[in-house]
Amino acid sequence: MAVPKRKLSSARKNKRRSNVWKLQAPALMKCPQCGEYKSPHRVCSHCGFYNSRKVVEVKGA
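The structure corresponding to this sequence follows.
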């Protein structure tokens, strides 16, 4: 059975794993009603519209 002859250094191990933990920027799109940025497939928190329909009544807007 194949066994490593020497211990892998932590720097070498971390270098190999560095691409796994990259953060991605959140996906954003403009709301077709008000133009504010929102997450796709979510109700707009600024105007309360989703799929060109008023879904939620927004307070103080």
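Helices lie at 10-17.
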